[in-house]
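During the reporting period the student researcher (J.K.) took over the structure-prediction task from the postdoctoral fellow and processed the backlog of single-chain submissions. One of the processed entries is reproduced below for the supervisory committee.
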Amino acid sequence: QVQLAESGGGLVQPGGSLRLSCVASGFTLDYYTIGWFRQAPGKEREGVSCITSRHGYTVYTDSVKGRFTISRDNAKNTVSLQMNSLKPEDTAVYYCVAKPRDICTSAITDYPYWGQGTQVTVSS
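J.K. obtained the following structure tokens:
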């Protein structure tokens, strides 16, 4: 059974950092492109970052470039999202997603596997 489990969310002050982790079970991450989406209250779900399966190419949405870093550790079947210089507008539920193709895309429907999400709240 394919499962993704996120962890690392929480409450942080503006300017602070969090590191989200996504652990996969039931499949090997090596052959999957992994992404992070987020959904803020009252807003649509949006793609945040992505890392491809074969070459580890990374993609970031403009609002997080220079602040967030995605990485993968295939030996641990884990993908992480390091989030620095957090802003109140980063507040959202963050979801780990996966698809068995070597390309990053932004469409929600391209990713058949989703985690349950982890809440990130940036507030003073």
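The committee noted the following: The CA atoms of residues 32 and 101 lie 6 Å apart.
J.K. will present the remaining backlog at the next meeting.
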